[in-house]
Amino acid sequence: MSLSPKKINAQNLAETVIRNLSKRQIAGYYAQDKDEALEIACRFLQPGSSVSWGGSMTLNEIGLIDALKDSDCTVLDRTVPAPEDMTEFYGKVAACDYYFMSTNAMTIDGQLVNIDGNGNRVASLIHGPKNVIIIAGINKVVSDIPSAFKRARDIAAPANTVRLNKNTPCTHVGHCCDCSSPDCICNQFVITRRSGIPDRIKVILVGEELGY
Question: What is the pTM of this model?
Answer without folding.
Answer: 0.95
